[in-house]
Amino acid sequence: MPHQVEPVGYVRSCFKEKFAIPRQPALAPAARGVLELLPPFDNGDAVQGLEQVSHVWLLFLFHQALEATPRLKVRPPRLGGNRSMGVFATRATHRPNGIGQSVVRLERVEPGRLYLSGIDLLDGTPVLDIKPYVPYADAVAGARNSMAAEAPGLIQVGWAAEALASAHAHSERLGEPLVALIEQCLAQDPRPAYQTPTPERRYGVRLWDVEVRWHYPQAGVIQVLGVA
Ligand code: SAM
C-alpha cells in the first residue's frame, strides 16, 4: 500500500542558500537553527524526555535537490566533482527519495521547538523524523570509510579590519556567533573544486540576514572583505 510521508516540522537555519553549507554536520559548531514542529507535534508531549539527550538524528528532505529521474552514479564534491561513484556509496543530495540524515547537537528543547547547532541544513528544510542519538549503538568502533576517511582539511581565513568589526556588530544584533560561523564555514573552502580562484574573483554568501564577501589573495587562503 503506498504510504505518504509528511514533515513533522521545518528548520529555520542560518543557511539561506546551498553554497558554503558544510558538507556534513558538526563541521561548523556555530551553525545554529531552530526546528519548528508542526501540529500535532508542537505539543510538549512529543518532545518529553528529549532534554536527556545531547544529540539527535534528523531525517529530512533535500527539498532543493529533488529530481524526477533517479541517478545511479553521482559526482560528490568530496571527490573534487570529477569522479563518479555509486549513489549509495555517497551522501550526495541527489538521491532516490531525496532523504538526508544529520546528527546535530540539541542545545535546548521547548514545546514545539528544538534549538540545534552544528547543522548542515538549508533554511526551510522539511524534517520527516527526529530520533535520539544513542552513543552505544550509533558510534561504531573500528568503522571504516576509505573514501571519506577524515574531515576535509581546513584553509586559513583572515579578515579585513572593517569586515571583522561589522561581523562583531551583526553578531551582537543577531545574538548569534556570526564571526565563528563565517570562519568555520569559509575554512571548509566552499568554492567548487574545479574553479581555480584568482585574487580578483569575488565570492559571496548570505548567512542569517548578512551578506558575506571574500576572495582568495593567494592559493589556500581566504580574506573576508565585507560583512553587510
Ligand atoms: N548530512 C546529510 C546527509 O548525509 O544526508 C547531508 C549531507 S549533504 C552532502 C550536505 C549538503 O546538503 C550541504 O552542503 C547543503 O549544500 C545541502 N543541503 C542542505 N539542506 C538541503 C536542502 N534542504 N535541499 C537541498 N540541499 C541541501
Please describe what this structure looks like.
The protein is mainly beta. The protein folds into two domains: 9-138, Elongation Factor Tu (Ef-tu), domain 3 (Beta Barrel); 156-227, YaeB-like fold (2-Layer Sandwich). Helices cover 12% and strands 31% of the residues. It contains three helices and twelve strands, in the order ββββββββαβααβββ. It has helices at 135-138, 161-174, 178-186, and strands spanning 9-13, 32-37, 55-61, 73-74, 85-86, 99-110, 113-117, 126-132, 156-159, 203-207, 210-218, 221-227. It has a six-stranded antiparallel barrel with strand order 1-2-7-6-3-8. The N and C termini lie far apart (52 Å). The mean pLDDT is 95. Bound molecules: S-adenosylmethionine.
Tell me which ligands are bound.
S-adenosylmethionine
Q: How many structural domains in the coordinates?
A: 2
CATH architecture of the largest domain: Beta Barrel
What is the terminal-to-terminal distance? Answer: 52 Å
Mean pLDDT: 95
Biggest sheet features: 6 strands, antiparallel, barrel
